[in-house]
């Protein structure tokens, strides 16, 4: 009986040890390949060009980080409104898609250190003369923004007397402004600059910058991953820090954004 008890105690200790070691072992996973999710519809950060090739600041920057980390990176295109659920269901390992690391999102996913920060702007038809974008001034006006973004959250919190229209993509909001179906559009300034220098050149103009609210907009853009993937976060944070230290982050930023990544 004593031998049986000793055997059972040993077996329990082994089982308990495996159970306790499980999370630690998962955290020390060696990452040789990283699947990267992006929207592919938010130039100049990430976009599918006419050849259906991904291009933009984040595409070049992440490819540089992958080379630095000596890992294979595979890109996966995902619609914006399902981009976090697809990460959590293991469709890919990290999101690189102009995602602000807001407190609300941090409840669901982990973020790397911030790698870029964008001013936020509002645009309108060239016939608009006022630069007053206060909630009172835009009462009754129709304002568009991409849905499930910090911009729609900001508008919902502050422009309750305006008509708010969320869109699946930024381009759809821009085109509705071009076609006179919106009064204003809010987005990251670099994205709106791309529109104003292209399809929106004749119709629209920049009106004003929107003040950043830390609670709504967060500290800036980071890469999102599942909270349990701590080894991946450590890898990415290290690579991001190195790219900032040696200035290599600013090469794709100057190419696509026309400015340094963080100012």
Summarize the structure.
The protein is an alpha/beta fold.
Please describe what this structure looks like.
The chain has 263 residues and is an alpha/beta fold. Helices cover 37% and strands 20% of the residues. It contains nine helices and 13 strands. A five-stranded mixed beta sheet has the order 5-1-6-13-7. The protein has a five-stranded mixed beta sheet with strand order 10-9-11-8-12, with helices on both faces. It is globular. The N and C termini lie far apart (72 Å). Mean pLDDT is 91; it is low at 1-27.
Residue share in β-strands: 15-25%
Ranges where pLDDT stays below 50 over 5 or more residues in a row are: 1-27
CATH class of the largest domain: Alpha Beta
Query: Structural class, please?
Result: alpha/beta
Task: Lay out the secondary structure.
Blueprint: H1 2-27, E1 33-38, E2 41-42, E3 46-48, E4 54-55, H2 57-69, E5 72-77, H3 83-88, E6 94-95, E7 110-111, E8 120-125, E9 142-146, H4 150-158, E10 163-167, H5 170-178, E11 184-188, H6 189-196, E12 204-210, H7 214-217, E13 224-225, H8 230-245, H9 250-256
Parallel strand pairs: 1-5, 1-6, 9-10, 9-11
Antiparallel strand pairs: 2-3, 3-4, 6-13, 7-13, 8-11, 8-12
Looking at this protein, list some descriptive labels:
alpha/beta; 5-stranded mixed sheet; D-Maltodextrin-Binding Protein, domain 2; 13 strands; 2 domains; 263 residues; 9 helices; disordered N terminus
């Amino acid at each position: 009986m004593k031998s049986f008890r000793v055997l059972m105690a040993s077996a329990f200790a082994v089982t308990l040890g495996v159970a306790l070691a499980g999370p630690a072992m998962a955290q020390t996973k060696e990452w040789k390949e990283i699947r990267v999710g992006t929207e592919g519809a938010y130039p100049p950060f990430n976009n599918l060009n006419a050849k259906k090739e991904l291009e933009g600041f984040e595409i070049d920057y992440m490819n540089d980080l992958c080379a630095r980390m000596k890992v294979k990176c595979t890109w996966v295109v995902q619609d914006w409104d399902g981009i976090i659920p697809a990460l959590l269901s293991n469709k890919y390992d990290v999101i690189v898609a102009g995602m602000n690391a807001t407190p609300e999102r941090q409840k669901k996913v982990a973020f790397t250190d911030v790698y870029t920060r964008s001013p936020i702007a509002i645009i309108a038809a060239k016939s608009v003369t006022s630069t007053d974008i206060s909630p009172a001034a835009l009462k009754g006006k129709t304002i568009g923004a991409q849905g499930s973004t910090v911009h729609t959250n900001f508008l919902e919190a502050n422009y309750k007397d305006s008509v708010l229209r969320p869109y699946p993509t930024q381009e759809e909001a821009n085109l509705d402004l071009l076609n006179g179906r919106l009064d204003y559009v809010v987005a990251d300034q670099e994205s709106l600059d791309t529109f104003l220098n292209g399809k929106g050149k004749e119709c629209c103009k920049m009106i004003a910058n929107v003040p950043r609210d830390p609670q709504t907009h967060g500290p800036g853009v980071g890469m999102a991953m599942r909270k349990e993937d701590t080894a991946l976060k450590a890898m990415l944070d290290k690579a991001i820090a190195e790219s900032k230290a040696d200035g290599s982050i600013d090469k794709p930023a100057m190419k696509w954004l026309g400015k340094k990544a963080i100012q």
